[in-house]
């Protein structure tokens, strides 16, 4: 596997080790941490140097392709050795898969625009993306704030070329 598959996945901070095809057709994508910054303590930002132990998570992602896919992510727990830090240990975390999150950041970010721009209901978006209702509702609130906080885009009057599109041979 390696670079091409990791590039295809497009999820910053993790690398694809291999992809496994399960009996029911599900593709299981094995991920490892690929970003040194993931080892920084979230409290004091000092990089961990002593492994506490392994950890495994199953973060969900956007649907891709016709068959189901799932992530199997191996990461590590680290001791924080900074004397002034109150945190004893932490697990690796990358921006696209924050520690404790059950889904990728891009999955949660996709939920808001779905309702805002595509008129999807909370229930429908939750079903499509396999997310919980509160997660989708949070994403929608964030997404709605982005719109109301931003200036409205200017809408140009349609030009001749655009209205004729599709009619010419
Ligand atoms: Zn720390």
- The helix tally amounts to 5
The total beta strand count reads 5
Distance between the termini: 45 Å
Average pLDDT reading: 83
Q: Structural class of the secondary elements?
A: alpha+beta
The level of helicity is: 25-40%
**What hetero molecules are in the model?**
zinc ion
What's the Cα radius of gyration? 21 Å
Query: Main sheet, how many strands, which sense, barrel?
Result: 5 strands, mixed
What is the string of helix and strand elements?
A: HEEEEEHHHH
* Molecular shape: globular
Unreliable sequence segments: none
Report strand %.
Answer: 15-25%
Task: Describe it.
The chain is of the alpha+beta class. The protein has a domain at 104-148. Helix content is 30%, strand content 22%. The protein has five helices and five strands. The protein has helices spanning 3-9, 105-118, 122-129, 133-149, 160-164; strands spanning 14-21, 27-33, 50-57, 69-79, 89-91. Strands 1, 2, 3, 4 and 5 form a five-stranded mixed sheet that branches. Strand 1 and strand 2 (27-33) form a beta hairpin. The longest helix is centred in the last third of the chain and has 17 residues, at 133-149. It is globular, with a radius of gyration of 21 Å. The model has no long low-confidence stretch (mean pLDDT 83). Bound molecules: zinc ion (ZN).
């Amino acid at each position: 596997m390696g670079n091409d598959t990791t590039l295809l996945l497009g999820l910053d901070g993790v690398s694809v080790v291999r992809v496994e095809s399960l009996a029911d057709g599900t593709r299981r994508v094995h991920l490892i941490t690929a970003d040194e910054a993931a080892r920084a303590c979230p409290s004091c930002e000092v990089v961990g140097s002593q492994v506490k132990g392994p950890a495994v998570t199953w973060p969900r992602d956007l649907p891709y392709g016709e068959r189901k896919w799932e992530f199997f992510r191996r990461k590590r727990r680290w001791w924080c050795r900074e004397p002034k830090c109150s945190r004893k240990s932490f697990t690796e975390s990358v921006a696209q898969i924050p520690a404790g999150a059950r889904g990728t950041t891009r999955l949660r970010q996709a939920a808001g625009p779905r309702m805002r721009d595509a008129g999807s209901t909370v229930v429908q978006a939750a079903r499509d993306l396999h997310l919980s209702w509160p997660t989708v509702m949070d994403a929608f609130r964030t997404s709605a704030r982005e719109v109301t906080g931003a200036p409205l885009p200017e809408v140009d009057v349609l030009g001749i070329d655009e209205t004729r599109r599709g009619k010419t041979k």
